[in-house]
């Protein structure tokens, strides 16, 4: 199963990628996570990426494409992967076609109001990057602490309501050509992500199975869903 997850902020990309990763034991590949790790380790790539971020600039396509290409060639990705945060431009989408033949691009569709509510309550573990929510499932078992490592959860500055509204609108302005690109190539699958995780995840699995994309057997049956 080689899929790309796309969706506006608050659509649940990180959450569903996390559940699929844990249930089917395939990697969740996020360019954002890769860049943050490289910056934290102060690698050459991290310093280059940081220089663009500090100037408020996007990391150039050629750097992002090289990073993704190297990651997808690693052994753990041969069985399948969930790609999140790439492609972000039409050029990146075309480059991805040359790197790997993805099975599907799943567009998680969410309304602006639901997105704002979700993200204003989102909390993230700074250690393992698991995603929680104080309003929706999955909620942390202890007050704003990670269920797995006990780390204090954090709220991202860009999860403030007005910031979310702007990010939502920018997403659809930016991703319209990418969505159409995959629609024309018959690789686009759209899933209504407005409902709860417990309602949406079975639908997502069924759609992937029906389209003969999800052929893997679960490696873990007791994964927490919502």
CATH superfamily of the domain at 2-109 and 176-210: P-loop containing nucleotide triphosphate hydrolases
Compute the gyration radius: what is it? Answer: 17 Å
Estimate percent helicity: 40-55%
Number of helices: 8
User: Which architecture name of the domain at 2-109 and 176-210 does CATH use?
Assistant: 3-Layer(aba) Sandwich
Mean residue pLDDT: 92
Low-pLDDT runs: none
Q: What name is given to the CATH topology of the domain at 2-109 and 176-210? A: Rossmann fold
What does this structure look like?
The chain has helices at residues 13-24, 31-41, 44-54, 61-72, 90-99, 112-120, 161-184, 197-210, and strands at residues 2-7, 28-30, 81-84, 104-109, 122-124, 131-133, 188-192. By secondary structure, the chain is α/β, with parallel strands linked by helices. It has a domain at 2-109 and 176-210: P-loop containing nucleotide triphosphate hydrolases (Rossmann fold), CATH 3.40.50.300. A five-stranded parallel sheet has the order 2-3-1-4-7, with helices on both faces. The chain has a two-stranded antiparallel ribbon with strand order 5-6. The longest helix is centred in the C-terminal third of the chain and has 24 residues, at 161-184. The mean pLDDT is 92.
């Amino acid at each position: 199963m080689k899929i790309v997850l796309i969706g506006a902020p608050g659509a649940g990309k990180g959450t569903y990628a996390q559940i699929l990763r844990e249930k089917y034991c395939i990697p969740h590949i996020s360019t954002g996570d890769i860049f943050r790790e490289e910056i934290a380790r102060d690698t050459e790539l991290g310093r280059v990426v940081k220089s663009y971020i500090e100037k408020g600039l996007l990391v150039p396509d050629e750097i992002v494409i090289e990073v993704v290409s190297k990651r997808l060639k690693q052994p753990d990705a041969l069985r399948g992967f969930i790609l999140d945060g790439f492609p972000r431009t039409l050029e990146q989408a075309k480059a991805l076609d040359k790197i790997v033949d993805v099975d599907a691009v799943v567009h998680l569709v969410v309304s602006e109001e639901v997105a704002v509510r979700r993200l204003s309550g989102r909390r993230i573990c700074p250690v393992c990057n698991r995603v929680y929510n104080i309003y929706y499932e999955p909620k942390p078992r202890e007050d704003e602490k990670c269920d797995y490592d006990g780390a204090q959860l954090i709220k991202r500055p860009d999860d403030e309501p007005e910031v979310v509204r702007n990010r939502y609108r920018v997403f659809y302005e930016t991703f319209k050509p990418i969505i159409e690109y995959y629609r024309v190539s018959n690789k686009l699958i759209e899933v209504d992500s407005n409902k709860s995780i417990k309602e949406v995840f079975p639908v997502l699995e069924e759609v992937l199975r029906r389209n003969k994309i999800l052929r893997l057997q679960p490696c873990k049956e007791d994964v927490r869903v919502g």
